[in-house]
Amino acid sequence: NVAARKALAPNAGRGLPNSAPPPAGPARAAGLRVLPPPPDLHWLLVLLMGILTLGFFTSLWTLVLLNWVRRVNRNAYPLILTLLSLFLSWASTALVAYKIYVIPFEPPQYHATVDLGISVFSVSQLVLWVTALFLTRKTLLHYYNVVEPIKLKLSFILTFLLSTLYLQYHLSRIARWKKTGVIP
Q1: Are 77 and 135 in contact (CB under 8 A)?
Q2: Whole-number Å distance between alpha carbons of 146 and 51
Q3: What residues have CB less than 8 Å from 11, skipping those under 6 apart?
Q4: What is the tens place of the pLDDT at every residue in 90-121?
Q5: Which of 37, 98, 119, 121 could bridge to 175 as Cys pair (CB 3.0-4.6 Å)?
Q6: pTM above 0.85, yes or no
């Protein structure tokens, strides 16, 4: 049994790039639990589904990713912040619809109040979203550089600009690594 495994993966457990992750790696040796692979959906599919559903799929997929990240760190702040961000986004959208369809028939004093509400909701939503995104980035960097060291690098700028798509790209790479033992 051991000889067969060595024949199939001669570099297994030696930390080489083409080796399978050791079954009792650094995380197990330290008494930490090793996580199952992250959600593996190609980032391009996430982008296309997001476009086709006008962003609804991307919002749901972000919640799926953050639910998985919650396994890495039991801290639920990124998930809660994202839920609040989505709520504020929907509230802002409702105010925009109100402004378009109802405000023209209302007295002018309501216009400034609705505009202020839209602005406050939109800025708050953006702040919550970016905070959740960078808390998630921090969690992933810590876990995949300390607990299961694969030398994960996440660009600050790309994390900000591409958010869910960028994280999904890297989580798909990690999922393939966990399945095949090869870091793509």
Answers
A1: yes
A2: 36
A3: 18, 19
A4: 999 999 999 888 887 877 777 888 889 999 99
A5: 37
A6: no
